[in-house]
Design goal:
With 229 residues, this protein is of the alpha/beta class. The protein contains ten helices and eight strands. Strands 3-2-1-4-7-6-8-5 form an eight-stranded mixed sheet. The protein is globular, with a radius of gyration of 17 Å.
C-alpha cells in the first residue's frame, strides 16, 4: 500500500458520500480512512461502504488525524478534509514529487462557492504558503509516514494544528508546493462573510504567532468573532 488518505469528520453527513465517491477509483493503490470525532448525524453510517476503515475518536481534528495515521498502512499520508476534492492526478503528482526527493508538501487550492472574492482568497492562500512554506489543511497536506512520526505527529491543539505541524516539518526539510489545485468548500467564508473571515484569520494567525492559547483561538474561530463576548 503506497498511500493512505485520512479524513477527519464531525457531522459531515451532507458531504461525506460525495467526498468518498470521488476517491473510489484510487482504492487499488490507496486506503481510505475516516476518523469520526463523535458525529450526531449519519456520517459514520454513510461512510462505511466507501472507506477501508471507519474509526471513532475523541473530538479534535489533530486527535482524529493522529489516530488515522497510527492505523495507516501507506508510506505516504494524505490528510483530506471532507469538503475538499483531490485532482484526478493527485497520486501521480505526489509520486513525482517523491521521486524528486520531496518528503512532504501540499497542493494549491481553489475555493468553491458563489462569492467573487473566493478566487482572490485562494490566490492569497497559495502565495502565502509558497512564501512561508506553511500549509493549511484546506491545501491537503501529504507527508511520508516515517517523517510524520519522527516529528511527533500533529500537536494536539484545538486550532492551528496544521501550522504547528508544518513548522516542525520545515525544520527538517522544505515542503513542495504543487501547482495542481484541490477544490475546497468556501462555505465558511460565505457563512461569516469573505472580508470578515479574511481579517479574522489574519488576526488569529497573528495572535497564535504571538503566543495566544489555541483553545481561546478555537472558540473565536468557531463563532466567527475577534474577541470573546
Amino acid at each position: 500500500m503506497n498511500f493512505s488518505i485520512i479524513i477527519p469528520t464531525l457531522d459531515e453527513a451532507q458531504v461525506i458520500v460525495n467526498c468518498l465517491m470521488e476517491l473510489q477509483p484510487l482504492r487499488d493503490c490507496c486506503e481510505i480512512i475516516v476518523v469520526d470525532g463523535g458525529s450526531t448525524d449519519n456520517t459514520k453510517r454513510l461512510a462505511q461502504p466507501f472507506a477501508d476503515k471507519v474509526m471513532s475518536s475523541a473530538k479534535g481534528r489533530a486527535i482524529q488525524m493522529n489516530i488515522g495515521a497510527e492505523s495507516a498502512e501507506g508510506d505516504v499520508l494524505i490528510f483530506l478534509h471532507a469538503d475538499t476534492f483531490l485532482p484526478d492526478d493527485a497520486l501521480s503528482q505526489i509520486t513525482q514529487a517523491r521521486n524528486n526527493k520531496a518528503r512532504w508538501g501540499r497542493f494549491d487550492v481553489q475555493l468553491s462557492g458563489k462569492h467573487p472574492m473566493l478566487n482572490l482568497v485562494a490566490l492569497l492562500m497559495n502565495w502565502r504558503s509558497r512564501i512561508t512554506g506553511i500549509a493549511t489543511g484546506d491545501q491537503v497536506i501529504f507527508v511520508n509516514k516515517q517523517l510524520f512520526e519522527s516529528v511527533g505527529r500533529y500537536p494536539v491543539i484545538p486550532l492551528m494544528e496544521d501550522i504547528a505541524l508544518c513548522k516542525k516539518l520545515k525544520k527538517i526539510t522544505p515542503s513542495v508546493c504543487l501547482k495542481t489545485k484541490v477544490i475546497s468548500s468556501g462555505r465558511r467564508w460565505e457563512q461569516f462573510g469573505v472580508v470578515w473571515t479574511i481579517l479574522l484569520m489574519w488576526s488569529l494567525r497573528l495572535r497564535y504567532a504571538l503566543g495566544a492559547e489555541p483553545q481561546t483561538l478555537a472558540i473565536l474561530y468557531s463563532k466567527g468573532q475577534f474577541w470573546k463576548t
